[in-house]
Specification:
single chain; 318 residues; Isopropylmalate Dehydrogenase; 2 domains; eleven-stranded mixed beta sheet; 11 strands; globular
Length: 318
């Protein structure tokens, strides 16, 4: 694996295992929208070197070549675009035309890229609501944790949460998780009519019982401690296949999810890869602050989702 993965991240074996597993599949042709800074170019170069992606650089050619100073982008296709909005539109068009299997955010604002993705006539919408998943590699925690949605849907309704949950389950299945355990989080583990998130948690669990959400076992409402810690679940006398063992955490809203993900990153030393599900193809949203290993893990996750869709094309257009 790449020597570019810093030694101080050597304990993040979950992400390293994801990269290694993804390398067993052919790389995915990836439209990178507006890769006009060093981080985006470095990501493209390393992703290509590890055979995770085959980059197509979409943006102002002169600026791309300037950003690539010190890197080799020889052999990478460049699709010239005048500005960031056109970069996003052309990158999305490559996906619609079947010329790319993945879409990645370069050095443009997330809103610009997602605006092109959700455009009604020219975007990448499906029947599902688009949602974001953080995949967290938390030191000393047995399983990787999927947290959703902490980046796109601000205050999702119950109907939207159904898609958020199903997208997260579909992601976990693509990553090879065989025992998917979904905790619907709230501030408490009992249903309280005065706390709407507990009512929605109970409804989501009953919807899973009725086959409206498939592929996993759900429980909720659960507080964070008794969702991920067996001892905390035992103290509260919560008995379920999920309590204390959840590997997917569904948060009540974007604010709580964002704070949860960032607290794990900054206080627990976790790495957080990210991917958008629910569109025609997986969408890679990396941050300039992300470590190289994290960016490579995002590529690996997107490639694993793509590989599963290659075997089941219908899954990509639901």
């Amino acid at each position: 694996m790449s020597d570019g993965m810093n030694a101080n991240q050597s304990d993040h074996q979950k992400f390293r295992a994801l990269v290694a597993r993804a390398q067993s599949f052919p790389p995915a042709r990836t439209a990178i929208a507006h890769p006009c800074d060093k981080v985006a170019i470095e990501s493209a170069v390393e992703g290509r070197r590890l055979k995770l992606i085959e980059p197509v650089l979409v943006g102002p050619e002169a600026r791309i070549r300037e950003a690539a100073a010190g890197f080799s982008i020889e052999g990478m296709e460049i699709v010239d675009a005048e500005h960031s909005h056109e970069s996003a539109a052309k990158a999305v068009a490559l996906v619609r035309e079947g010329r790319a299997e993945l879409l990645m955010k370069g050095s443009l604002h997330t809103d610009e890229l997602m605006g092109a993705v959700v455009a009604r006539e020219t975007g990448l919408r499906t029947a599902k609501r688009i949602s974001h998943c953080f995949i967290m590699d938390v030191p000393d925690h047995k399983d990787a944790l999927i947290i959703s949605d902490a980046a796109i849907n601000i205050a999702p309704s119950l109907a939207v949460k159904v898609d958020i949950v199903q997208n997260a389950i579909d992601l976990a299945r693509s990553l090879g998780v065989s025992d998917i355990r979904v905790a619907i989080l709230s501030a408490m583990e009992t249903v309280n009519p005065n706390v709407p998130s507990t009512l929605e948690a109970a409804a989501l669990c009953k919807m899973a019982d009725r086959g409206q959400i498939v592929g996993a076992v759900l429980d909720g409402p659960l507080a964070l401690d008794n969702a991920i810690d067996p001892e905390a679940a035992a103290i509260k006398k919560i008995t379920s296949p999920v309590a204390g063992r959840a590997n997917i955490l569904i948060v009540p809203d974007l604010e709580s999810g964002n704070m949860l993900a960032k607290s794990l990153s900054f206080l627990a030393g976790a790495d957080a890869a990210g991917i958008v599900m629910g569109a025609r193809v997986p969408i890679i949203l990396t941050s300039r602050a992300d470590a190289l290993l994290t960016r490579l893990a995002s590529f690996a996750i997107a490639l694993l989702v793509t590989a599963s869709r290659r075997n089941d094309p219908a899954a990509a257009i639901q």
